[in-house]
Amino acid sequence: MDYRYLGNSGLQVSEITYGNWLTHGSQVENDTATQCVRAALDLGITSFDTADVYANGAAETVLGEALKGERRESLEIFTKVYFPVGPKGRNDTGLSRKHILEGIDGSLRRLQTDHVDLYQAHRYDRFTPLEETMQAFADVVRAGKAFYIGVSEWTADQIRNARALAADLGVPLVSSQPQYSMLWRVIEDEVVPTCEELGLGQIVWSPMAQGVLSGKYKPGEDAPAGSRATDSKGGADMIARWMTDDVLTRVQDLVPIAGDLGLSMPALAIAWVLQNPNVTAALVGASRPEQLAESVTASGVTIPDDAMARIDEALGDVVTRDPSLTARSTPTKR
Ligand code: NDP
Asked: Per the confidence metrics, is the pTM higher than 0.85?
């Protein structure tokens, strides 16, 4: 496993980070979740990403249990705040001072730790003054409850404004967490150049397009039993956007490219996002320990330019690049 600095901070994270959206506390049983976390640690993964909203708090609880007894200094734990956990009261959403200060305490309780290494704004809040949000994050940092601050699915302008306030407040705003994969490249034109300029690194989610880029979903065939596309607890809905014959056919065209490089398809997908120098970590999911063992083979891989060009040619127009799509992630109502 290789490790990278998170943006221009001094924090090193594993370039493959394990995330537990849709899996822990939901699709997979708790003992399998624990096995995945143990496997991750054995494979050199030291960074773990979760969010208060995942499985309504249960994902943080499962991760906290699985990491219990580990040396805290050897781990980097990331979580997020924005969406409601439990009853959806008026103040249970967003980035108000109240929700951030209450949210961090709930996360720390479930994770069984007194601090997280990275506390991320899960979305931008257009209903709360950015000054209020950044001041609340500053107070979380000053209380020692989070060491670094990040954002997720924010536009380049939103990041620039937050970075200016963070600099005034002395808040280490160091990361952006957007979706990024061979199929979804909307950050390349605006978010990445802005973050490069401002010293933020990308921790990118769904680098395997939720499993689609593993090549296991074949056009015109039923999805494999137990896969996310068959998960009635939410996974099937989330992956649906990629489950078209057009996308699945193009993905099969990547198989010979992976073969020529001596990589598995999951490793090709993860290595691809890690070629972008502004990417600090690929945030992978796994429903079984063996999947993580395959994912980590992407660490340290260099994909030659001619293979990168072949990937673009194979995927053609199923790649989404429109930078304006990031703004659509900003919730329009509370
Ligand atoms: P991936 O694109 O890595 O997809 C992971 C899924 O792909 C696994 O759960 C598994 O699903 C399948 N898979 C993994 N490895 C293999 C393999 N070797 N062979 C075949 N299938 C495989 O990432 P996720 O979509 O899970 O997202 C990763 C993390 O990103 C999340 O846990 C979360 O931390 C973060 N995230 C952040 C968001 C945000 O808004 N900030 C939004 C979404 C995710 P299965 O076995 O069930 O088919």
From this structure: yes
